[in-house]
Amino acid sequence: MAWFSREKSGVDKAGEGEKRMRTEGLWLKCDGCSQIIWKKSLDENFQMCPQCEYHFRLDARARLALLFDGGAYQELDAGLTSTDPLHFSDSKTYAARLSDMRKATSLSDALISGWGTLEGRHVNICAMELKFVGGSMGTVVGEKITRAVERSLDRRAPLIVVSASGGARMQEGAISLMQMAKISSALMRLDEASLPYISVLTDPTTGGVTASFAMLGDLNIAEPGALIGFAGPRVIEQTIRQKLPAGFQRSEFLLDHGFLDAVVKRSELKAYIAKALSFFCD
Length: 282
Ligand SMILES: [Zn+2]
What we know:
Layout: H1 10-23, E1 27-29, E2 36-38, H2 39-43, H3 60-67, E3 74-76, H4 94-105, E4 111-118, E5 121-128, H5 139-155, E6 159-165, H6 173-192, E7 197-205, H7 207-210, E8 219-222, H8 233-240, H9 251-256, E9 262-263, H10 266-281
Parallel strand pairs: 5-6, 6-7, 7-8, 8-9
Antiparallel strand pairs: 1-2, 3-4, 4-5
Helix pairs in contact: 5-6
Bound molecules: zinc ion (ZN).
Zinc ion (ZN) is lined by residues 30, 32-33, 35, 49, 51-52, 54.
């Protein structure tokens, strides 16, 4: 019987393993349409599914490379790190968690701040990194965005922040919540100076990030299908004792209900931002 033959010898198994290893990582299943797609075709298509345009998540470096001309930019404030103000500890110490994250991502915290040009115009772009403690906002994220705002003021350049975040960083407690006020007041100064701020919300943008700078743009635009919200759907359902509508907290739903200005495909994002900046600045 064919289905017993596999156990016959170790040679077949080793052969299979080898075959698996050689093809590993070349193909993946799309979360949108469940089709098997060639990874290379994703790389050539802005990490969007060629079949259904499902947007796979993009890390901060790839995001900046996509938006800055020629993928080139000057990284700023790269050395800022959290001082662990509460000496916090849960399943492991916050200090150990940060150290692990730094090794895993080669980043000092959950945001990269870049200076360069977008279709020829000088801009500050901050991109959040979801892989670093869930893209959470602590003192470093707060300080980096605030400094980017100040640079925008000094250089009279627009600011773009690309959010991808689980919200405030609980390991920094109330100090992380203070970043909401700090960034918001910095953005107000940008507004008073008539300099544009464009917020790009990507999957997922939640919690204190949604409740502050992600929704304070002169333009708030999102990628298709992104989860955007403050509290999670289960908490809301239990609080209001009602079933939530389909597509709740997704970009398209939020656009229909006036929370967003546009939903823009990743392949068109750079051109869209450039056009918006021309409208604001020229
Ligand atoms: Zn797909």
